Amino acid sequence: MAFLNGIKKNLNRAGTTIKQRTGGGDRTMDSEFEEELERFKSLEKKSNKLAKHAKEYIDSTRAIIASQMRLVQVMERLYGETKDPAYQKAVLEPLARFASYFPEINEAIKRRNKKLLDYDAQRSKVRKLIDKPSEDPQRLPRAEQEANLARELYENLNTILINDLPKVVDLRVPYLDPVFEALVKSQLVFSQTGYEKLEGMRNYVPPENGNDRRVDDVLQQMRELTICGNF
């Protein structure tokens, strides 16, 4: 029975939405909520994008580190010095936790929107009964009572969201500041480690002038080969 009631509510809400879009139904406008919703949606989009790019950053860092490890031929030792665990704990995990609250908030927004559709549908019923009174004198009072109940349910959720959405948006600064600080520090450690490892290769590279002479000698020997002279 509850399942059928749920289907009926969804059908009624769909009908109310269609009527509103075609100008045939009452529609409640709440500019204050829409403003806070827009700010929250912007935060959600940017936070998810930040989490994605943070993951891409560590993937790119790992690729560069792997190249450095191959260059200096100390793969095991260098890999043990990478900052993956610290980066995971200080950057990726906090971003994931922050973004994990968004689905719950979005569910509350969906519930609010459903209650708004219910309220607008009840308002339309009341207006129609006023414009065209029913033979049953109890229909209008019942409709008004149902409209008042729908309004209370909607306004309760709406008030909660209007109060809490700005708090969620404002919390981004104290929460994300340490994440950005950890990101900058990890970049510094990565750059310093890479420089130290590559600097250590200088002992294996011949002096520049001597290297040039060796290259010239090899090229001269190639030019003197018979096969080269035939082309």
TrEMBL record:
Gene3D superfamilies: Arfaptin homology (AH) domain/BAR domain. It comes from Rhizopus stolonifer (Rhizopus nigricans). This is BAR domain-containing protein. The lineage of its organism: Eukaryota, Fungi, Fungi incertae sedis, Mucoromycota, Mucoromycotina. One of its GO terms (biological process) is actin cortical patch localization. PROSITE patterns: BAR. Residues 18-214 form the BAR domain. SMART domains: BAR (SM00721). GO terms for molecular function: lipid binding.
